[in-house]
């Protein structure tokens, strides 16, 4: 695949909230294409970044892109829930800022791992390919009730039961192997009137749900954010960019319930119209930031 970089979302806002220009040690918990990491490293020549991603392909590409920063950048293939272990390995007890830019990258969506219903690929959806569970196993092996629960809980899809039933009926005839097969099954389960009135692709919520389940995304966030806050020095900042309400709710609740945080964004910061026009993938982004006190 051609080298297309992920356009970093809310970049200037993230750099400002991290106070990256003032210098320090930062963690980019979601390296991806390396856009935010690069901006942090450029913001001050003294800055160091410890970057994490669970996707080995993303890491390989980002390391190439960021080679020129030499030992100012350390990269770890890990789940960001292991942020404490990573920092221990670096011999660092506290940091000045941590950034999470959640969700999937442009590269993952455009690749051949079954994240997108716009093209036909095997149903995989693993961010970390060392993991065993794939989307194909989820749709072909879980019970109808389990599928309905996943699609309802992680997709907030009101037609979850109908979709689960359609999946189970279809796989009786033959296993569901590709993204387009799954997208068609989901589409057929949603009433025509609703389908016609929707702006989004009818499979959007179901794909989101299966991806979240396969990658245990919400569990990782719930573990990682408190851990990241623990590692902040006083005055250090945490910045989290989310892409749907389930993620945003977790961040909002964790920030609100901590006594050692000053919330810097009473309402989440969202991209400008200009950013959304240039990068439609940014449209649902929300940034929340807080300072350790
Ligand atoms: C939206 S992209 C980040 C883009 C990046 N900020 C940039 O500017 O290019 C999200 C990245 O986070 C990674 N990721 C998601 N969940 C993760 C987790 N639990 N642990 C580590 N990396 C994760 C994904 O593999 C993906 O590469």
What does the model show?
The chain is α/β, with parallel strands linked by helices and about 290 residues long. The protein has two domains: about 170 residues, Vaccinia Virus protein VP39 (Rossmann fold); about 100 residues, DNA polymerase, domain 1. Helices cover about 45% and strands about 15% of the residues. It has 14 helices and seven strands. It has a seven-stranded mixed sheet, with helices on both faces. It starts with 10 loop residues before the first helix and ends with a strand. The structure holds S-adenosylmethionine.
List keywords for this structure.
DNA polymerase, domain 1; alpha/beta; Rossmann fold; globular; binds S-adenosylmethionine; seven-stranded mixed β-sheet
Summarize this entry quickly:
This protein has 293 residues and is α/β, with parallel strands linked by helices.
Number of domains: 2
Instruction: Report the CATH superfamily of the largest domain.
Output: Vaccinia Virus protein VP39
The pLDDT mean sits at: 95
CATH architecture assignment name of the largest domain: 3-Layer(aba) Sandwich
Continuous helix count? 14
Name the strands of the widest sheet in spatial order: 3-2-1-4-5-7-6
| Euclidean distance between termini CA atoms | 45 Å
How do the SSEs run, as a string of H and E? HEHEHEHEHHHHHHHHEHEHE
